[in-house]
Specification:
Elements lengths: L2 H9 L8 E2 L4 H21 L15 E5 L2 E3 L4 H11 L3 H10 L2 H14 L6 E14 L5 E13 L11 E10 L6 E8 L1
Helix pairs in contact: 2-4
Length: 189
């Protein structure tokens, strides 16, 4: 894909809104539950020759960026080939494929709805996902999964449109030889 086309496409996925870290009491429970379930799935993937089936199969448009390397939007097979070239380590591939999918964002969405239940009254449109992976100097892997969506009033209701869009984010860091560190954040505007 042409570099200027990539940049134009990428600009549709970014925003400059202020993200609020979810701080409700049940957030820690959600995080522990999510990590436990995903780690169990990762352990089973380690015994196979496959990546997660939901990896790079989002129903929403998505971008995938690894250490500032942009994986061009293409068919899934070509994108997986590009992913494997950028990350040759099979264990890292399996770990990232376990978390970098829409399912990983689900708990973040539930957290947003628990803090802003009125969002559930809107129609969600123009959803797009961004997955950014960075290999840190200390050997950690950082994954930031983000969903940006526009909101529209439901035609069946007489509500006034208070919000126009929202974003949810799940960030996880996998330190070497330690438990993952995770947080959820969001914005509503």
């Amino acid at each position: 894909m042409n570099k200027s086309i990539q940049e134009a496409y990428y600009s549709n996925f970014i925003n400059n809104d202020v993200w609020i870290v979810s701080d409700q009491l049940n957030s820690l429970q959600n995080i522990q539950f999510t990590i436990k379930n995903f780690q169990k799935h990762y352990e089973s993937l380690k015994l196979s020759d496959n990546l997660d089936q939901k990896f790079m199969a989002d129903s929403n448009p998505f971008l995938f960026i690894i250490n500032n390397d942009f994986i061009p939007i293409n068919n899934r097979q070509k994108m997986l080939e590009d992913f494997k070239k950028i990350i040759p380590d099979i264990e890292s591939q399996k770990l990232i494929s376990t978390y970098a999918n829409q399912k990983f964002l689900y708990q973040s969405y539930l957290q947003l709805i628990s803090e802003h239940p009125e969002i559930d009254q809107y129609l969600i449109k123009n959803s797009r996902n961004i997955y950014k992976v960075n290999f840190l100097n200390d050997g950690s892997i950082k994954l930031v999964a983000t969903n940006l969506s526009d909101l529209d009033v439901n035609n069946d209701s007489n509500q006034i449109q208070k919000y126009k869009s929202f974003g949810i984010r799940a960030t996880i860091i996998f330190p070497p030889n330690n438990s993952p560190i995770m947080k959820y954040s969001h914005f509503v505007k």
